[in-house]
Amino acid sequence: MWRLRPVSRLVALVVVTLVGAGACALDPSTGGSGGGGAAPAGATAQGSGASAAPGSDQPDRPATTPPRATPSRTATPTPAKPKPTPSRTTPKPTTSTSPAGCPQGEQQRAVETYLAQLGGFGAVTVDGKQSPADCAAIKKFQKRYDIRPAQGRAGPTTYDVAKRLATTDTSRCRAGSGTTFCIDLTRQTTWVMRDGKVLVKPTVTRTGMAGYRTPAGTFTINFRNIKEWSDPYEVWLPYWQHFTQGMGFHETTTYLHNMSIGSHGCVNLLHADAVRYWELGKVGSRVVLIGRRPGT
Q1: How far, in Å, CA of 107 to CA of 146, rounded?
Q2: Cα–Cα distance measured from residue 246 to residue 240, given in angstroms and rounded to the nearest whole number
Q3: Last residue of some domain: 166, 183, 211?
Q4: Residues 199-220: what's their mean pLDDT?
Q5: The domain that contains 200 carries what CATH number?
Q6: Is 153 exposed, middle or buried (0-12, 13-18, 19+ CB in 10 A)?
Q7: Do 201 and 255 fall within a single domain?
Q8: Is Repeat included in the keywords of this UniProt record (predicted)?
Q9: How far apart (Å, rounded) are the C-alpha atoms in residues 296 and 293?
Q10: Which residues are catalytic?
Q11: How far is the C-alpha of 13 from the C-alpha of 7, rounded, in Å?
Q12: What 3-state class would DSSP assign to 205?
């Protein structure tokens, strides 16, 4: 009996070894990774959907066993204490220099200066800071000269128009007696004089582009038509007043402040100005053009 004990121990050891080896064997249910028999990473999560990224694009999957609510151990739940908000995140009341809906532009002070010089658009304070009064004046100016959008912002177009108008020297136009239409080709502005005095203040215009330069000189309106058809360009020309070589005044058919283009020699006007010029003009009226449009 004493000799059988080592044999029994040897048999027991072999059995334990064989059972342990079975625990590391390939399990078909795991997908055959062979990694020590453990399930692939995320396998359990894939079954429950827990590994999916949260978000509205991820569909919800019902759990196999709905989670049970854990009852509270206390009769009355203790409310969470609110976290103190850092003082630096608390907004401080400030006085804005830009009224709501009327942003300040990069040319604020210059536009204020020119509008104060031109007059007629309301009170402005020349300090480079937007105010409700400044906003109203700039908006009025933009609407008058069809600057889009008319939101009161002193941007580059508003600055350019204001500067051209404010620096126009009306005395350079030798009007003489009667009604004279004057055009400053350099500044792209126009105005009307009668008997040597300004009848209509300078307004904006756009003349011939490169290759179609509007010539300087003195001419006379010799034909008018409330609505003229242009044969070469196939477009209507409202409030047409011809003065030389197929060129004349008419209402613009495009956005006047797009200065990258121009007319084919005509003097383009905003609608209100075209109507006013039509009312004042007649066959025989004088037209004086001075300077030269840059780039033509």
Answers
A1: 18
A2: 11
A3: 166
A4: 98
A5: 2.40.440.10
A6: buried
A7: yes
A8: no
A9: 6
A10: 250, 266
A11: 10
A12: coil
Could you give the angle at the alpha carbon of 201 between the alpha carbons of 195 and 205, nearest 5°?
115
User: Domain range holding 214?
Assistant: 172-290
In a domain, 85, yes or no: no
Give the Å distances, CA to CA, from 218 to 196, 200, 265, 266: 15, 19, 15, 15
- pTM beyond 0.85, yes or no: no
Of 234, 218, 245, 237, whose CA–CA distance to 278 is shortest?
237
pLDDT of 70 > 80? The answer is no
Tell which residue, 247, 249, 223, 246, has the closest CA to residue 238: 249
Q: Does residue 95 carry a pLDDT above 60?
A: no
Q: Which of these three, 97, 132, 166, is where a domain ends?
A: 166
How many structural domains does the chain have? 2
pLDDT at 100: 53
**Residue of 24, 32, 288 lying closest to 170 (CA atoms):** 288
**Residues contacting 104, CB < 8 A, separation 6+:** 97, 98, 129, 130, 153, 154
Give domain status of residue 195, yes or no: yes
Sign of the Cα torsion 158, 162, 164, 170 reads: positive
E-strand stretches of the chain: 179-184, 189-194, 197-204, 217-220, 223-230, 235-244, 247-251, 267-269, 286-290
- Paired sense of beta strands 189-194 and 267-269, if any: unpaired
Question: What are the residues facing 200 on neighbouring strands?
Answer: 192
Only one residue has tokens 């991820």, namely 58
Q: Is the peptide bond before 77 cis (omega within 30 degrees of 0)?
A: no
Which residues lie closer than 8 Å to 122 by C-beta, 6 or more apart?
133, 136, 137, 140
